[in-house]
Design a protein that fits this description.
By secondary structure, the protein is α+β, with helices and mostly antiparallel strands. The chain contains 21 helices and 17 strands. The chain has a 3-stranded mixed sheet, with no helix packed on it. A two-stranded antiparallel sheet has the order 1-5. A two-stranded antiparallel ribbon has the order 2-13. The two termini are about 25 Å apart.
Length: about 650
């Protein structure tokens, strides 16, 4: 089997090899040349290990990959300023997913380059005597990338030009795809089982791969493969293959393994665990906390180790710019004719690109309980506060809604938790009309009903918002990409994976039923340490109410809803809906208001989600680079996407 990626694979490693976020985490010296011979030295192998972590930043935090994981689901649709990249993924008739326009090359190119590097590490490290722990990191990342690929594209090649799972150093212009069962049973499962055995409980350095990371990946892979074997809705696979496991196990066996591995991770957490509150988990000052098991790291301390500019992000490369897409242009707010909420490098604000928007259903249905459950408040920005002095405006107060004065830090605009029929929509800037808001008697802030969420204005994405410590008294560097780590695996996932496996029939342990596991998550969600949008400390424990509201029997739809409350906007949703084959059922329609400033009337939009879309297209660049016949290229591409 032969594989082609348009750039030579060793050359591709040059781009990513020596970028990493923190100098006290994984530091290597850059080299102008990286050859197969150097890869046979200890320094070369360790440099290759560093690149395994660096490659995460070219996937996680990339807005176009982020878009492909969220837009078109029940969580997200396209926003006012969206171009074809975002409209195509919405499945609502405003664009179409194609091999040239779906940006699937973000994953395909970066993952396969890294897989080849990992194979080189595994082969060469054994020869030169590198420890099993180090080799296990490469095994973890090879499996990690193959797991992403097989979920996204179906079967993918295990032979990149030198044999299955072998390190390739020469260009190759042909490729053959393996089947889904082959990718799981030859690559993903063996590598992860070895990684769990050999990786340490505590990473050798901050942010390094651990047993817990490998357990999350393996348990999720078992769970996903179990669903694939079961195939409840007869979704087609590609390349075509029988849904028979080569080892003779059935779906139930894999659901049980998913449960076992996940609960092993809960019982043997190492340094990881749940943070006390959802706010504490997501507030920027607590980044890299004990719940964060794997992340694509960044830093504000060094452009070199950050991998991108600390002052201006162009939206490419290793920029962590995903959160810009879910940020509307709040800078149009005016109080007394003054720009009262200015662009700031602060977690509630940041750089607005208005490319993606949460649906009304997210706010009104997914996060229906905003009183007991802290997760809505610790996910979204729903209050925009005045910061004009940081932008050089000397006024100590401004006139805002209802002719009332506000001072810096006061609310300028609020999206209400519930619709208020007394709201009067504005007609001009003095009444909030310039941003499609309105007023309520006695309130100095402009207000908006949740049913008025539109492609123009919507809650901001606080959870992933910018956090910098170098702003001083100014607006800081709001045009730079985020210097926060982008979380990939959280310890809480073990609870969700085990619960889902239990719902699928896995035999459970005492105290670890699906209901027990989800109650742990929901109890934490009921604990408040801070009212984020109220900007005030809040020591309230609603865990008893959250537990009481948990159904006594759970189904997959409830698990999926709970996953959305926990992980909204983190890039899990498309994978969750595809794994469970619930995409069309749950995301087949959504509500949102239009793109105009004064659009306040929700519209129901219908999506056309057909079975072929459960796989993404192989990037056109891959097909163009292969020396194969047109018939062979068409057979290589996933059905419905050949151009």
């Amino acid at each position: 089997m032969k594989f082609n990626y348009k750039k030579p694979l060793i050359g591709t490693m040059l781009m990513t090899m020596f970028f990493i976020a923190c100098t006290d985490v994984l530091e290597e010296q850059p080299r102008s040349k990286y050859t197969p011979e150097y890869f046979k030295t200890e320094k070369g192998v360790l440099g290759g290990i560093t690149s395994q972590y660096a490659h995460l930043r070219y996937i996680y935090g990339n807005a176009y990959y982020f878009n492909s994981c969220l837009t078109g689901t029940d969580e997200v649709t396209y926003a006012q300023s969206a171009d074809g990249n975002f409209k195509d993924m919405d499945m609502s008739g405003v664009g179409s997913i194609t091999a040239t326009g779906a940006n699937t090359n973000v994953l395909w190119g970066n993952a396969f380059s890294n897989i080849n590097t990992a194979s080189g590490i595994i082969e060469n490290a054994e020869i030169i005597g590198i420890s099993d722990e180090i080799i296990a990191e490469a095994r973890f990342f090879r499996a990690f990338d193959y797991f992403l690929l097989v979920q996204t594209f179906g079967g993918v090649p295990l032979d990149l030009g030198a044999g299955e799972l072998k390190f390739n150093t020469s260009a190759s212009r042909t490729s053959v795809r393996n089947t889904v069962p082959e990718v799981y049973t030859k690559a993903i499962f063996p590598d992860l089982l070895t990684a769990i055995e050999d990786l340490p409980a505590t990473g050798r350095v901050t942010g390094a791969a651990t047993k817990t990371a490998a357990r999350i990946c393996l348990s999720k892979a078992y769970l996903t493969y179990g669903w694939w074997l079961q195939n409840p809705n007869n979704i087609p696979t590609y390349p075509a293959s029988d849904r028979i496991d080569p080892s003779g196990h059935d779906a139930a066996w894999y659901f049980q393994q998913a449960y076992n591995v996940a609960t092993d991770g809960i019982a043997d957490p190492g340094p990881f665990g749940l943070m006390p509150t959802f706010y504490d988990l997501n507030v920027g000052k607590n980044d890299r906390n004990k719940e964060c098991v794997l992340y694509a790291d960044h830093t504000e301390d060094s452009e070199f180790y950050n991998g991108s500019s600390l002052t201006y992000g162009g939206g490419g490369g290793a920029d962590n710019f995903a959160v810009w897409m879910l940020t509307w242009n709040y800078t149009v707010l005016r109080s007394d004719g003054v720009s009262s909420v200015q662009r700031e490098a602060e977690q509630h604000l940041g750089r607005p690109w208005t490319r993606m928007a949460p649906t009304i259903g997210v706010v009104k249905n997914t996060f229906a309980d905003k009183t007991n459950d802290s997760r809505y408040d610790a996910t979204f920005t729903t209050v925009w506060r005045g910061n004009w002095p940081k932008g050089g405006v000397a006024a100590t107060s401004l006139i805002n809604a209802n002719g009332m004065s506000i001072v810096p830090g006061d609310a300028v605009l609020t999206i209400l938790n519930e619709d208020d029929p007394a709201l009067v929509w504005g007609t001009d800037a003095a009444t909030g009309g310039n941003v499609g808001a309105g007023t309520l008697p006695g309130r100095s802030d402009f207000v908006m009903n949740p049913s008025g969420i539109s492609r123009y204005k919507y809650p901001g994405f606080w959870k992933l918002g910018v956090y910098r410590t170098d702003n001083g008294t100014s607006l800081g560097q709001p045009n730079a990409a985020s210097t926060r780590p982008f979380n990939i695996y959280k310890f809480s996932e073990l609870y969700f994976i085990a619960a889902e496996a239990a719902v699928k029939g896995a035999t459970t342990q005492g105290g670890l039923t699906a209901v027990d596991l989800i109650k742990v998550i929901r109890a934490r969600a009921g604990k408040w340490s801070f009212d984020n949008n109220g900007n005030v400390a809040k020591d309230v424990d609603n865990s008893a109410a959250m537990i009481a509201a948990t159904p006594t029997t759970l189904d997959i739809n409830y698990i999926l809803a709970e996953r959305s409350r926990e992980y909204f906007g983190e890039g899990y949703r498309w994978f969750d809906l595809v794994r469970t084959q619930k995409w069309a059922e749950i995301a087949g329609s959504y509500e949102i208001c239009g793109s105009g400033v004064t659009d306040h009337t929700p519209k129901t939009i219908t999506r056309n989600i057909t079975p072929d879309f459960y796989l993404r297209p192989i990037p056109q660049g891959q097909l163009d680079g292969m020396e194969m016949s047109e018939a062979e290229k068409e057979a290589y591409q996933n059905p419905g996407y050949y151009e």
